[in-house]
Amino acid sequence: MDKDRARQLIDAAQNRDICDSVIRNAKVVDVCNKEIFTADVYIKDGYFVGFDGNRRAKTEIDAKGRYMLPGFIDAHCHIESSHLSPSEFSDAVVPCGTTTVIADPHEICNVTGLDGMEYMLKASENIPLSVFLMFPSCVPATAFEHSGAILNAPEIEKFIDNPRVLGLGEMMNYPGVASADSTVMDKMQCAWKREKNIDGHAPSITGPALDSYAAAGITTDHECETPAELHDKIRKGMYVMLREGTACRNVLQLLPGVNERNCNRILFCTDDRQPQSIVQDGHVNYGVSLAIQHGLDPISAITAATLNAATCYHLADRGMIVPGKRADFFLSSSIDNGIKAEEVFILGAKQAENGKILHKAMHTKPENVSGKMDVKDFSAAKLSFRPQSDHVKVIEIIPGGVVTGSGEAWIKRDENGEWIHDDGQDVLKLAVIERHHGTGNASTALISGYGMKHGAVATSIAHDSHNIIVVGDNDSDMVKAVEKLIAIGGGITMFKDGEELGTHVLEIAGLMTDLSLEEVTECLSKMHDIADKRLHVSKEIDPFMTLCFMALPVIPALKLTDCGLFDVNAFAFTDSEIK
Amino acid sequence: MDKDRARQLIDAAQNRDICDSVIRNAKVVDVCNKEIFTADVYIKDGYFVGFDGNRRAKTEIDAKGRYMLPGFIDAHCHIESSHLSPSEFSDAVVPCGTTTVIADPHEICNVTGLDGMEYMLKASENIPLSVFLMFPSCVPATAFEHSGAILNAPEIEKFIDNPRVLGLGEMMNYPGVASADSTVMDKMQCAWKREKNIDGHAPSITGPALDSYAAAGITTDHECETPAELHDKIRKGMYVMLREGTACRNVLQLLPGVNERNCNRILFCTDDRQPQSIVQDGHVNYGVSLAIQHGLDPISAITAATLNAATCYHLADRGMIVPGKRADFFLSSSIDNGIKAEEVFILGAKQAENGKILHKAMHTKPENVSGKMDVKDFSAAKLSFRPQSDHVKVIEIIPGGVVTGSGEAWIKRDENGEWIHDDGQDVLKLAVIERHHGTGNASTALISGYGMKHGAVATSIAHDSHNIIVVGDNDSDMVKAVEKLIAIGGGITMFKDGEELGTHVLEIAGLMTDLSLEEVTECLSKMHDIADKRLHVSKEIDPFMTLCFMALPVIPALKLTDCGLFDVNAFAFTDSEIK
């Protein structure tokens, strides 16, 4: 609040001045009393003035008895997962009723470091969606791979005072916290000394093991998988997020743990939500609707997606429809049976109607985040996989998640000991090629469960360091796919018999594009079709998203980084050969 | 949180270091899940480490199955009403389970201005009780009286950045807010620009009239008198306080409006609680117990007195028993049937047991706040009451509150027109003598319902400007009483036939004393006895507290300030004569 705005609101409230607009006949969702009441809601200068009272207004909007909800707040997301730049992301999620996101630019910062932070702040500055950032706490995610940057306390200090940076992003390094590792402590100190939040990420950590993590002032968690885990994290003072992303979906798992007693410690988030999921099902509204359809009290669910998030992140200017707060809201005919954002308003101005954005968000040209492809001496030789034995470990894709198995296979090798693809076996070669510092690093391993018969698929999205990852049955297509990504500055591409079957260009850090949600989903839809029809990738998995997680050395059991095959359970590199 | 403490807590949580203490076998009140669970609770360096886990601890305390509650937070109080200095106040309320108060030093600042603010901060700095202050927003309370200071935005700016100053105190000037008065706006701007709270005080303001007040970002109210008013204020985004003071008690009035849906927007406060009430019934624990005994869910009531207040005032380090928060807590055998703080711990150290403080709080010598008695040319002549007619207005005391009636009387006058006391009539003379700036101001009027037969009672506690107020049947005793207060620097005194019957010295600004709660209550008890037995003050009223409110020109209907008789309903001075 500032004096000029306060004066405008007070004058309008006291009927000394005319309001900008009034929403008549609205069923207002009151997240404080947790009830519905019917009112005319007055707005001035983008903020709520008050209810009823026969005030004057320049514009009248008839809500026709529809529900009026505070705009939804996504408590934790990675914009990069949408493949969209912040302006296009705004255009994609605002029509779903999301008006504020708390985003962790973990992916782009892993590639481009502080340039990524700078870009995300700048590109999200003057768009309808309110974008707040958490400074990524784990760049790189582990010491077992090469990311594009190393961000520690000195780097955090440069951004943490920005009022749009709300604290430190998901602290994935549980061992670092529990051991009071000094680098980790220095990072957290940046948030502590400013009383800013630290987001958590502590899958399966409960009981006494959780105490050190909670004692470190880590205030949220979005990785709960059971009601008991949710309950314990709330007991330790944390807010627990019900996450409904694309690969990870926990709303229904966690719902049995949520009740009228603890629901004000619950938030909603999307974490990683792919463009197709946004188009098909929506955004935060999807998770909220799902929870309601499965028994959560509608107003408690709405409160979790609004007031609770505003409270948790100290966003004092939003989260409820009350005088003096931002007029971010939407109208929906139903709250019991699917929340649909029929008309979405931000700062009192209508931004979307019936799922369509009305005015495209202002676009900011990406600077210092494009074409990040510093790959040294790449050639087929880098793809060599020559184990000492025919009996080897394979990364075993498990459909429906990002966890892999540690499988085995008996393989064919040529006279030089080089792996040869066996048509009768669902085993392919996987390679990770370092792309940030021209180290020349590349590593190879075998993978099962991908299903592809012949060809290669490569992507520069490979959590969390986002090196190039490529899968294939033959080196020739794999080389072409990798070379294509280097040439275009990143993306997803498919080759077969030397032919480029399809390419999705991600020119912003190899992670995102300036295309719109519609263009991205259309392209991806074609790509999926090709992966299915021409490459015969297993129908049980997403051909691209699955690949993205095969280099993530914090998710069990077997993963491949640019430095080699990694046994996550042993938290150490391992050999392919089974001796 | 800071790095050193975090490291200690983490090391203790991970069992690398020994904890300072463990509270074994406690029924912990979990205000997040709103449930009770049994645990061993570990503490290190004054903060909670965690639950169970067979850790080591230097000291073991057996809770023997008692309830373990977070220390209570008084969301709004005036320490001055206890007559105690901050250190003695700490000793008085900590044994009741209050470990944090948010105090508005409105009274002392009305007398001593910024010196009062300085003193309250300093005197509350190193005591067990956590004292946070709200900078008083209304000094003076009105323009119709002389207070000791005028505090506006420039004065607020000097203190508002102090981390123990949480914002602007109760904004009693509703008309000033509603009219966007520039002095009021400048004061509020001090809080707005730092995102600090502004406390409210808006009795009976609801509906559209409340909108401008809520739009100004005023976040709390402790003046609700009906469930409907409570409900409306919560709807406008405000936290509503259930107040249980001495003169004003709203818990039972408001309770029907509190339910499981809105209870996280409820706080508890004591506002003005007299020393006798603290001794007899307790402090915040009394209001909480009362609410529980009359049907509020015990854990919801406890949550209101702990987590809700911490949330509302952004006190991130307290309000719940979870790892990383201050180990401020107490043990109670019961929560359903009266909460009694049997053992009280602050920062993990036991401070009180069975209602007794264990170590007296460090006392700070009052500086620049003593003997504030600048009275010019006082003599019997100042007490002259010579109306133009025998038919006059009288201030009519109404037992049980601070509202007065506007009564009438036919009086006796001497040959000079001077009022003469009529033994057959319960009408006395009331005078207010300015004591801050030596203006020589004094005003007189008549008052009914006090009951005293013969003598005079005077006090330097006279809300909100705290000039000297004196009541009596004869000028001689009245003069002696006033002279006594001037001589001792303030307090309460009684005279009869020239004899000093009793005096309660309030040497700190004429409002507070360095005596202990026990000494104060003993003195007051004797004084009450004398007022009853020797002065025959009406048994329906408190002889001293009633007097304190007779100069408060914001409470209807008729009051007397140092500037004259004030008609609160007309908000203007008035004559005594009825024409």
Automatic annotation (TrEMBL), chains A, B:
EC number assigned by the record: 3.5.4.2
Keywords: Hydrolase, Manganese
InterPro entries xref list: Adenine_deam, Adenine_deam_C, Amidohydro-rel, Metal-dep_hydrolase_composite, Metal_Hydrolase
GO biological process: adenine catabolic process
SUPFAM superfamilies: Composite domain of metallo-dependent hydrolases (SSF51338), Metallo-dependent hydrolases (SSF51556)
Catalytic activity as recorded in UniProt: adenine + H2O + H(+) = hypoxanthine + NH4(+)
Cofactor(s) annotated in UniProt: Mn(2+)
Pfam families tied to this protein: Adenine_deam_C, Amidohydro_1
Span of domain Amidohydrolase-related: 67-332
GO molecular function, one term: adenine deaminase activity
Domain of life: Bacteria
Domain Adenine deaminase C-terminal: 404-571
Family listed: Belongs to the metallo-dependent hydrolases superfamily. Adenine deaminase family.
Record protein name field: Adenine deaminase
Native organism: Candidatus Ornithospirochaeta stercoripullorum
Gene for this chain: ade
